[in-house]
Every structure is written in C-alpha cells, then in structure tokens.
Amino acid sequence: MSKLLFTMLPANTLGLSALLLPIARALADRGHDVAMFNPAPAPAKLIEDAGLRNLRRMSSRSKSIPGFDPAQMSLAWDAEQEFAAMYGNERYTRAATAFYVDLIRRWAPDVVVDTFGLLTCLAARILKVPLVSVLHGNNHPASNGYLWWKGERPHGLPSAAPVINKVAAEYGVAPVTRAIDLLAGDLCLIVGTPETDPLPATARVTYVGPIVWQRDNAVLPDWVTALSRGKPVIWVYPGDPRSGSSPTHLDSIVVSRAAIAALDDAPVQVVLTTGYHEVPKEFGTLPSNFHHTDYLPGLAMAERCDLMVHHGGHTSVNTGLSTGTPAVIIPTTTERESNARRVVALGACEVVMPVDGADGEKHIDVAEFGAKIHRVLNEPDYLRSAQRVAESVRKFGGAQEAADRIERFAGSNTRPVGVADSRS
Hints:
The protein is of the alpha/beta class and 424 residues long. The chain is built from 15 helices and 15 strands. It has 2 domains: 3-209 and 396-411, Glycogen Phosphorylase B (Rossmann fold), CATH 3.40.50; 222-393, Glycogen Phosphorylase B (Rossmann fold, 3-Layer(aba) Sandwich). It has helices at 15-29, 41-49, 70-75, 79-87, 90-107, 118-127, 161-169, 222-225, 253-263, 298-304, 314-323, 334-345, 366-378, 380-393, 398-411, and strands spanning 3-8, 33-37, 53-54, 111-115, 131-135, 187-190, 206-207, 233-237, 269-273, 290-293, 307-310, 327-329, 349-351, 355-356, 362-363. The strands form 3 sheets. Strands 3-2-1-4-5-6-7 form a 7-stranded parallel beta sheet, with helices on both faces. It has a 6-stranded parallel beta sheet with strand order 10-9-8-11-12-13, with helices on both faces. Strand 14 (355-356) and strand 15 form a beta hairpin. Helix 5 crosses helix 7, helix 10 packs across helix 11 (314-323) and helix 11 packs across helix 14.
C-alpha cells in the first residue's frame, strides 16, 4: 500500500477539495494511507465530513489563503497571471515554500497528488517526490488560458516565474519558463473530457471525466424530497460571497443577490446552499419560496432540481454536466467565464455577465437574468443538450479511474516525467 498526500491551493472554497475528495476517499477505501491538506474552514469541514485526515495542524507555520491582488485574480488572462498576483511577494513565497517542504518531509508520502497548488508542486520537485497533477483543462500549461476566445496571449503580462525561480534556486532546482509549468506532474489527469476541457492533441494528459464529491450513502433531507413536483426547483449555489472585509472582484455575493431579486415570490422553489459560508446579513429574512442550508450532496441535488444557478466554478459546472441539468451562470472571474462559455457552446446553459459598479460591487441586469431563467426552464433544447453531454461523459471513469491510475503510478518502480496518455 502507498502513502499519499493530497494538496491544493488553500482557498476557502469547496471546488478544489470537492475535486480531490472522491479520489482520496477511493484510495483510502482500498487501504492506502491517505492525508489531505487545506487549513481553510470550509474545505476543512468537507474533508472532515468525508472521514479523511487533514494535516492542517501539523505545523505551527501553517499558511491559510495566499496574499493576492483580487483584481488581477478575477481579471487574469490565465493561471500564470493569477500566480503573479498570488506569489509576487518574494518573502511570502519563500516562507510558504519552506512550509510545504516541511509538510511533505514530515508526512513523507510516496506520491503527492495536487490540484492548483503551485508551491506544493514546487516543494515536491525540491524533494524529488513523484507528483500527480489533477487539473482543469484551463489550468494545464498547454491551455490557451481563460480568455481563449480573444486570441493570442498579450505580451508583457505579469508572471510569477521570476520569484518562483529565485526561491527554487535556493534549493538547487532548475528554473522554469513559466510558473504554470510546475503544475504538470509526472502524471497529469484532466478532470473533464476533450469536449468540456479541450487541450491540444500534443498535451500529454489523461482525461478522466467529471469528478464530483458525494458520499456513497448520501441522501437528500426530507424537506428537499418533499418539495412540490408541480413547481420548478432551482438550486442556487453562489460560492464564497465575500473574499475579504470589503468588496473584491472575487466576491460571488452577486449570485445570491440576483436570485433573491429575480425569484422572490416567483412560481418556483429555490434551494440556496452556501458551502458552509454564512448567509450575508444584508439579506435579512429570505423570501418565502427560498430554502437555505449550508450543504447538500451535489449530484443528488443536481438530479432533483430543474435548473442550477451558480458562479461558474469548474466543480459546479461538472456537477450539472454529470447529471444532465441545465444552468444559468453568473461568472465572477475570467476562469469561471471560460467555464461558462464552454457550457454555452455545448447548448446546456445561458450566461449573465456581471459588471463592476462604482461601489466596487458586481451588478447584473435582473430582468435579463429572470428572462434567461425562464428561457432555460421552458425551452427543451437546454435540457436535451445537458442530457447529451451527461451521456457522453459517462464514457469516462471519473474518480475511480483517477484512483486506478494513481494507484498504478504509485506502485511503479520508475517515475518518468510525462507518463500519461491522451484519449479523445
């Protein structure tokens, strides 16, 4: 049996942990020694609920969310520009890298399995620990970025490579051209399919299909199953409403605000889940046709609802595509806009783009949002398209296939860089 450490960008959102949890749980159930690391409160709660070990208390030097410029994060052309915002501070990057080196040394895994944790990938390279990357297509080095529909990446955009290479050199590690190059592990698994997460044919990756966390014995609570079949059920998941004490471009509170403004007293039933985040106090008492809870099993809820409304996160997109549930998406970052545009191209959703107001808050056209909800609920092509995609993604093995490949990789005596295959 192998000893495995699952790591990720330590953000206080559920997307990355929900991506890794099904794989980690599958490998733990097979007898492997599995631990995860994310010190942020919401992911920590999800990891605990999955019955997996979280190493967040292993070191007193534990870091939570990296310091970053939210404007660059949400408007970034690609992950390289995001990393420049997150890891441009040399002092922070040096200290955080030392923390991850210490974390990996102390846990001493046979393999690190990571998603979007740049400094964990650097630490694994420093310690020569085999690395498996589990990535969205957008975050692979071969991707043409989040704003792919705008053509070539502009010259002169910020890069984290100068700072990363300076820190790496202190450990005797060779420089990289781009920081994002560190994300491509010895084995690289893409969560999605060539249709949902397209990459060049030359990319050395393995597509494993959508991966969404849900316990095997998960059931919806009675109050959800008791919702009337005579009115549409709309599931609203806004993600983290606030990323700081003041408005930032990363905030997803606009999703909840839009849903309340457009659906208050409408002939629909709204289920609002907040991913272990509190409902903002500004909302007061929710409308009578709204039902709130912290968390629900995603696949079960997506199957029960008629429409999903969310912020365009990759895991939210995969949840809907896995169950054939159409959506209306309010993307709150460029990465989420990219995800949303992919689903629009598949015919399974509509998008309402927010705009930044003078107050620093995102705003949307509520009338447009309401009209698109009505359209997706009432025009059958959206449902047919979503169901077609759901049928196509079932050809991929998801979390179990990812676990199979990681298990074989961990048991191998050799670790050639770039071991992967392409499947179209």
